[in-house]
Amino acid sequence: MTIIQSVRWSPDGDAVRIIDQRRLPETLVERDLRGAAEVRDAIRTLAVRGAPAIGVAGAMGLAVAALGYVGESPARFAARLEEDASAIRDARPTAVNLPWAIDRMLARARERAAAGDGPREVAAALRAEASSILEEDVAMCRRIGEHGLPFIRDGARVLTHCNAGALATAGIGTALAPVYLAAEAGRRVEVYADETRPLLQGSRLTAWELSRAGIPVTVLTDGMAASLMRSGAVDLVIVGADRIAANGDVANKVGTYGVALAARHHGIPFYVAAPTSTLDPATPTGDAIVIESRPADEVSAGFGARTAPSGPFVRVYNPAFDVTPAEYITAIVTDRGVVRAPYDFGPRAKEARLLSRSR
Question: Which of 48, 60, 148, 345 sits at 20 to 30 Å (Cα–Cα) from 138?
Answer without folding.
Answer: 345
